[in-house]
Amino acid sequence: MNLKIVNKITPTLTPSDHPYLNGAWAPLHEEVDATEMEVIGEIPKDLSGVYVRNTENPVHDAIGTYHPFDGDGMIHAISFKDGKASYRNRFVQTKGFLAEREAGHSIWSGISGNPKKSLRPGWGARGDMKDGSSTDVVVHGGEILATHYMCGEGYRLDPYTLDQIGTAPWAPPEGISAHPKVDLTTGDLLFFNYGKQAPYMHYGVVGADRKLKHIIPVELPGPRLPHDMAFTKNYSILPDMPLFWNAELLEAGFHAPTFHDLPTRFAIVPRFGSVNEIRWFEADPTFVLHWTNAYEEGNEIVLEGYFQEDPDPAPIEGPNINPRLGKLLATIDENSFKPKLHRWRFNLDTGKTTEAHVDERNLEFGTINQHYAGIKSRYLYSTTTEPGWFLFNGIVKHDLETGDSSSLYFGDNRYGSEAPFAPRLNATSEDDGYLVSFITDLNRKRSECVVIDAKNIAAGPVCTIILPHQISSGTHATWASHGECGQ
């Protein structure tokens, strides 16, 4: 391996038994460049592009209870071309990261903390939080865009060097949520935000030239906690779900998500539509972290995602569980909130919604061939998780046309990342390509990049690349071709 250590950050963290500060979630504090890494098998020569992963890596002790989504963003990128791979990783140099590095300690309380304990004004839908830019990542207009769970400025990096470019100049004052969507057909990036001030949500479109083309308010009854959006060829879909902050506690300064006895609502608006063109549809009450795709079929708009059967689960209990962490652990454990692959149909003629589960297993973090985003897609790749944990232990491939599925288990004490689809060069069908994922192997105390044939995931990796260090498990990842990265 040809390894260059670019930088080492000295953390001020004190030893802790917090489950998300150890094991597969142990934070990483070094930045490296690596080539000529050990490869088990052979890297396919028709795999060409960049896999980009965002992870959470706290540097300082939390103010209050640490939540794994509070960590500072770190981008990992592995670039493939002509059967070779190169890797590098860098912290996202957010304003909060730089301020805390200068101070030598945390300045802002996190998701599970009291914002009144933050030492300075901050960012986010809740307010007075650090924008760690550590949740989601996409590639748009030839740049990486990293975003924060509860809204932030959006940080841009070069997809090859990971040089910092700055914040998104088009972001509105309220910021942008994680999960903006890129339409590869048009080059548009669709985004939304949410917060505690009326109208409580905005929706917008940024062109392939990275300039704002459209933005409108989406009026909600009060503060909400949407996490994702979806789009079709002609429409955008924005949810209003009944898991949101308790209004009485919010007035007292406490941000306590509560599941309310209300229907789920969906705003459907033409991509460049006005406020007057928003149509609302009602559905069964639930909360959804992630949608997988949406498309138009006749007079219906079809939406697919993961319907939570228990959006406000009871705390996890056990002899080795800190009671103070029980509720936090439950809210990020799929075995607790029970997400099921689900399909909604919105009839544009009648205004009615029909819906049903597609699969009864607990599944989430689905990916598709992004060239089929916004149109009907046949194949979906979801993750399965370790009970009691936010750790991905395998992948399920669905054939949504036949109803068949296949699966891959990563192995005991081996936990993967979100696995986006990478079309092979000159692909001839929707699933003609690969899934790419980082695996943290606690048995060997290392991380790997695995490449899996998307046509036959059960066969396991076609190659495994040994990474230069163990990375934190983290949340989201993306794939971009070299053309999409600006080459």
The protein's oligomeric status is single chain
**Beta-strand residue percentage:** 35-45%
Major sheet attributes: 6 strands, antiparallel
Give the averaged pLDDT, no decimals. Answer: 97
Shape: globular
What structural class is derived from the secondary structure elements?
mainly beta
Query: What name is given to the CATH topology?
Result: Neuraminidase
User: What's the domain count?
Assistant: 1
Give the strand tally.
Answer: 34
* Helix content class: under 10%
Short key terms for the protein model shown above:
mainly beta; 6-stranded antiparallel sheet; 5% helix; 4 helices
Give a topology summary:
Blueprint: E1 2-8, E2 30-35, E3 39-41, E4 49-56, E5 73-81, E6 84-91, H1 95-103, E7 136-140, E8 143-147, E9 155-157, E10 164-167, E11 181-182, E12 189-194, E13 201-206, E14 212-217, E15 230-231, E16 235-240, E17 243-245, H2 247-251, E18 257-259, E19 264-270, E20 279-283, E21 291-297, E22 300-308, H3 326-331, H4 334-337, E23 339-347, E24 353-357, E25 364-367, E26 379-385, E27 392-399, E28 405-409, E29 414-416, E30 421-423, E31 433-441, E32 446-453, E33 461-466, E34 477-480
Antiparallel strand pairs: 1-2, 2-6, 3-33, 4-5, 4-34, 5-6, 7-8, 8-9, 9-10, 11-12, 12-13, 13-14, 15-16, 16-19, 17-18, 19-20, 21-22, 22-23, 23-24, 25-26, 26-27, 27-28, 29-31, 30-31, 31-32, 32-33
